Amino acid sequence: MRESTLWFWHLLAGAVILILLALHMTIMHLDDLMGLLGLSHGDPIDQKIVFARSQQVFFMITYILLLGAALYHGLYGLRTILFELTLSRTLERTVNIILTVSGLALFVYGAYAAAVIYLMKEVQP
Amino acid sequence: MSQTSGPSEVVFDVLRYNPEKDAKPYRQEFTVAVTKGMTVLDGLVWIKENLDPTLSWRSSCRMGVCGSCGMFINGLPRLACANQVAHLHSDRVVIKPLPNFDIIKDLVPDLEAFFTRHRTVKPYLIRRAVEEQNQPTSEYFQSPQELVQYIQFAYCIKCGLCLSACPTVATDDRYLGPQALAQAWRYSADARDEGGKDREQEVYSSHGVFRCHFAGACSEVCPKGVDPAFAIQLLKQDLFKRKLSGCKEQHGSPVTAPITEAKENPKIPKAPAPTLTK
Hints:
The structure holds two protein chains of two kinds. By secondary structure, chain A is mostly helical.
C-alpha cells in the first residue's frame, strides 16, 4: 500500500481513538461524575454490568473499532520508529510483514473475544 | 546598518583535507588581520592570496545569491560571503566543510547527492498539455494571491545549508531532505502546475515527508528566509485534504488569451540586434 494512504489512516485512527478513548474514560473512570448527572449504571467493573455492556451491539462494535484503531495507530507508530533506524530495504520489508501479521492476529483474537461475549447467553459466575 | 567592532586579528581554524594526499582531515590555523566589513569569504581569499594558495573552497557571487560558499562556520552552517568576521564575536573562526556531505577537498562539499535529490522531485512546472508547454502561444494565468502561495520557497538558492543542518539527513541517506521537499511544495503549490501526482511517489515515500522530525533546523539556517520545515507541513496538510476530498485531479491555471493588439511604446528603447547568429 502507498505510504501516503498508510499515513492518512494513521491520522484517522488517531481521531477515532480520541473519540472512543473519551467514551471509555467517561464510562470506566468518571462514573462518580456521571452519577451526579444521573447517567451512572453502577460500578463499571462489576461483572454483571460488564457483561450487560458487552451484550449491546453498540459496545461490541465500539470495542472492535477501538481495538482496530489502537492496533493500527500503535503499530504504524512502531514501524515509523523502526524505520528511523535506517534499515535496509529487506529489513524494512521484514518489519512490514511482521507488524502486519502480528497486528492482524491480535485484531482477530480481540475481535473474537468481543464477539464471543456478545453472543454469550448468560454471565458465568 | 550597525557596525559591530571585533578583534583586529582573528585565527582562521580551517579543516583541510585532500583525499589524494591525506589519510584523514586535519586542522590548520591562519592568523588574519581583520578589516572593516571583512566577511569570512574575504578572509579565506586573503589566506589563499597571501598564506596558502592550495586552500580550496567553492564561491562565486560574493553577495549571498549564488549559494556556493556554504560552510560550517563557528558551529553553524552559513554562507561565508554573508557573514562578517566581526559579527561572529570571536577571535577564532572555526571553518569546516558542510556536514552531511562528502568532502571533495578542504571546504568543498560534494553536492552530487543534493542535486540528485533535487531532481527527484521534478522541480519544474508540469502540464498535461505538453504541446502548449513546449510551444507556448501565450502565458499561464497567475494571480498575485496565487503567487504568494509559493513565492517564499522560490527564493531557495540551493546552497545546501538546510541539508547540512537536518538531523534526519545525518542519519538517513535515503531521506529526500528539506530542500527537495520545499521545492516539491514550491511547484505543487504553483497554480500553473499540474504535476502534483508526478511528484507524489517520491515526496510521500517512506523516506519522504513522513521522516521529518520537525526539528526546524533547516528553516533556522536558511540564509534566504525560506522555511522548508513549513513546506513539509504544508505538503502533509495538502495530502490530508486531498485524501479527504477523494484525490481530485489537479487542474493548472488556464492559458491567457494570445496578445494580438500590442502597441509599441515609443518611450521604451528597442533591443539591440543579436550579436550572435545561428
